[in-house]
Amino acid sequence: MKEIAKGKLLIISGPSGVGKSTILKEIFARRKNLYFSVSATTRPPREGETDGVHYHFLSVEKFQEWIADHNFLEYAEYVGDFYGTPKKYAYEAMDAGRDVILDIEIQGAEQVKKSCPEAVSVFIAPPDWNELKRRLSERGTDSPEKIQKRLLRAKVEFQSAGMYDYLLINDDLKESVKKLDAIITAEHCRTKELLKYDLIREMDEL
Ligand code: ADP
Ligand code: 5GP
Description:
Helix content is about 40%, strand content about 20%. The chain is of the alpha/beta class. The strands form two sheets. Strands 2-7-1-8-9 form a five-stranded parallel beta sheet, with helices on both faces. The chain has a four-stranded mixed beta sheet with strand order 4-3-6-5. It is globular, with a radius of gyration of 18 Å.
């Protein structure tokens, strides 16, 4: 069967420090057909972050220009900074048959689900709150004030977990990677995937 290529849109959300980037790094090493959507943000780069690779780091003015130019698939404010998904590259990658991964917070996830209901969403939760606090502190990238704000936000985010298609408790990293890998595989096995195959045309050729 010939496949009419169109990649999936996968939304990954979860509180800051829960392990989204860590899980995604492993998933990218396992699966070859993925595209990571590089977001734009007004937050300053962390040590080791590169412009255009981890984020497009923009001034608030530039971010507002991008909003005015309708460059975003979604955007939101999170703990004092703006974050948004550039539309163009995500659509190009999907059209090229690649599964596009969006690492975005809950307000953005809700916007994407509205405009692309076929998007698959996964909420990643911590095994408990103390562990989340420990991971955020040990990562060493945020000030104690920022950590406090992110933890407060985490409680609000957790209340939205029910709107996601899947829930993944990130306790053991290896297990989490296996589960996310399985979710992506399962989504490619849905019966609606039949639409991707040019069966009718091929039947005519029989
Ligand atoms: P996020 O992208 O969700 O903000 P990170 O991927 O940066 O979170 O992870 C935050 C910290 O937690 C990192 O130091 C990472 O090594 C650690 N971490 C991630 N997953 C696990 C896990 N399953 N068990 C223990 N530590 C983890
Ligand atoms: P961080 O500052 O830790 O990189 O990200 C903070 C939060 O912003 C995380 O929850 C992350 O998923 C979210 N985020 C990153 N990029 C985007 C984006 O393009 N849109 C939205 N809505 N959230 C984003």
